[in-house]
Automatic annotation (TrEMBL):
Main location: nucleus
Lineage, highest ranks first: Eukaryota, Metazoa, Ecdysozoa, Nematoda, Chromadorea
Species this chain originates from: Angiostrongylus costaricensis
Record key words, sorted: Nucleus
GO terms of biological process kind: chromosome organization
Localisation: Nucleus
Any one GO cellular component localisation term in the record: nucleus
Keyword presence, RNA-binding: no
Cross-referenced SUPFAM superfamilies: Barrier-to-autointegration factor, BAF (SSF47798)
Protein name in UniProt: Barrier to autointegration factor
One Pfam short name: SAM_BAF
Domain of life: Eukaryota
GO terms for MF: DNA binding
Length: 89
């Protein structure tokens, strides 16, 4: 699934119990790392996004440092969570 279709699918419905890999930018390897750290659900990663007060650079830096994800994927994940929060909060 392309990142843009993954983004559209994620932001167009409530988060519920979606797996963390459903967040745009979070691919298989990054997903495995996050699950190993206890971030198995998208809403748990979203909680971390809120802990960082939706601050773009802080969340992206944390995600890159924690998972080794590429910066472009970290930005995609941030944008996905940010768009979802604008729509549902």
């Amino acid at each position: 699934m392309s990142p843009s279709s993954k983004l559209r699918e994620f932001v167009n419905e409530p988060m519920r119990d979606k797996h963390v890999s459903s967040v745009a930018g979070i691919a298989h390897e990054c997903s495995d790392t996050l699950v190993g750290l206890g971030f198995d659900k998208a809403y748990i990663l979203f909680g971390q996004f809120l802990i960082y007060r939706k601050e773009r650079s802080a969340f992206i830096e944390w995600l890159v440092a924690t998972t080794g994800i590429g910066i472009s994927n970290a930005i995609a994940a941030y944008d996905c969570l940010s768009e979802w929060s604008e729509k549902f909060l």
